[in-house]
Amino acid sequence: MSGRITLSIRRFTQCYMITANSEESIIASYYDIALKNGLGEFSNWEAGLRWLSQHEEEWIILYDNADDPDLDFGRFLPQSSHGNVIITSRNSSLKQISIKSKMLKDMEPEDGLQLLLKHAIKDHEATPEQKLTVSDIAAKLHYFALALVHAGSYISQQN
User: Fold this and answer.
1) Residue 26's CB: how many other CB atoms inside 10 A?
2) Are 47 and 116 in the same domain?
3) Within this chain, do residues 59 and 90 fall inside the same structural domain, yes or no?
4) Over the stretch 16-31, which tens digit does the pLDDT of each residue have?
């Protein structure tokens, strides 16, 4: 996690990440939120959603992979003036449910190289030859963050 992200998260009292690729995974995540906040094992997923809507302190929730165009995503968003929501998606129609949306560009080559190096070579400084190889791999993966992390982890495990 970058320093800027770490610093920005510190201002929130609660931080949650929800895999939003299906209704089932969202519901399971809200149920976990209910349990983590002492709402009891007999509560349902809606208790977690209500808790976020009513929680008085500032929180942040990240919905990752909200790509399904058939998912009624709006029903899963907490209604709150003190919450912060980030949605990652390739579904451009989700812009309609947001006050503010931002299209993110691809990762810059240098950032992609650093991300891959961070996950591939953990115990020492990369040699110039390793940097050249990693740079080539990052370019072939089009600097896609998830692919870079997976490739880096694989490389690290092989060494």
Assistant:
1) 21
2) no
3) yes
4) 999 999 999 999 999 9
